Amino acid sequence: MIQARFAGSGGQGIQFAGSxxxxxxxxxxxxxxxxVSSFGPEARGGSTKCDVLISSRTIYYPRARSLDVFxxxxxxxxxxxxxxxxxxxxxxxxxxxxxxxxxxxxxGFPITQVALEEIKNVITASMIGLGIxxxxxxxxxxxxxIKALMDRTPPRVAEINRQALERGxxxxxxxxxxxxxxxxxx
Length: 186
Hints:
Blueprint: E1 2-9, H1 14-28, E2 32-39, E3 47-55, E4 67-72, H2 75-81, E5 85-94, E6 107-109, H3 111-119, H4 125-137, H5 142-152, H6 155-179
Parallel strand pairs: 1-4, 4-5, 5-6
Antiparallel strand pairs: 1-3, 2-3
Helix pairs in contact: 1-4, 1-5, 3-4, 4-6, 5-6
């Protein structure tokens, strides 16, 4: 079983990224999938996390206990959830928002910076992050995650989200050549 967590601030698209991954794994790759969301009390800006469990077998316990993959979009999330990452797990951070993670074997990417400077929309940072995770780990295929994104995205923002996801996939695939994280199998 693969256990993935996306965490950051409310309004960053964390829940959406998790739902796209879950749909890609379940609908397009035929895996059993559980998605569990957690929100802080604030509508925007509070803590949020989304856990996605993916397995070729029945999932009996719907909680992530030992993360294979963890994407931290801010320092608070990194500090709060790093201990849940298993040894040799894949720890991805937004290097512009998480500073105290170098000693934790984090793989840093300028996620928000790329969203602002290249895609021209900060809300796409979660799609860049999802693309990086998929590109690094091959947790699902690129094709499956793109199809799931297009299924879940309203037409007016579909193309910009696709651009962001594809940019993240390229960043993750490029980094994979030098980092060599474990390929994850459901």
